[in-house]
Amino acid sequence: MTVGEKQAGSDNPPEVLDGPFSTRQLLRIDEALRLADQGTGLVFSVFVGGLDEPIREHAQRLHRQLADPDKSVLIAVSPNQRQLEIVTGRYARKRIPDTYAKLAALSMAGAFSGGDLAGGIINGLDQLASHAGKG
After folding, report:
1. Distance (Å, whole) CA 99 – CA 88
2. For 96, how many CA atoms within 13 A lie in the half-sphere containing its CB?
3. In-domain check, residue 10
4. Whole-prediction pTM value?
5. pLDDT at position 19
């Protein structure tokens, strides 16, 4: 997903230049991210786009670039490569163990294979946030 820069001092949201989501889907994903953040005290992020090989290492590099990696959860999806990675920071991993992340990933992959990219991401965020519980 390629998103344009938000202009400084502008109240307009960034423009989607080219991506797999409709405006409605983007709003639903944004709402799911907000609810996950607020409900858990963790910081959830989603990356949709190409991932360099090795995939896991690229997702981990993206995760390290987040503002607070220890408290962050990154869902990295590359639809064209049919790849999905969930990266949790040190603190976030205590609340979302790998077993739960794998269960969420399986659920997301099922939705993706059915052609529902946005729904899979939204359901995955909900599952991860539910496992994390209140912060």
Report:
1. 12
2. 35
3. no
4. 0.86
5. 80
Which two structure tokens, joined as six digits, stand for 98?
A: 């790998």
Q: Within 13 Å of residue 98, how many CA atoms lie on the same side as its CB?
A: 1
CATH number for the domain including 98? 3.10.310.50
Q: What is the pLDDT of residue 5?
A: 32
List, in order, residues 6 or more apart from 110 with CB less than 8 Å away: 120
Residues spanned by the domain of 54:
17-129
Q: Name residues of the chain where pLDDT drops below 50.
A: 1-11, 14, 16
Q: pLDDT value at position 97?
A: 96
Q: Which residues of 74-96 are buried (b: 16+ CB within 10 A; e: fewer)?
A: bbbbbeeeebbbbbbbeebeebb
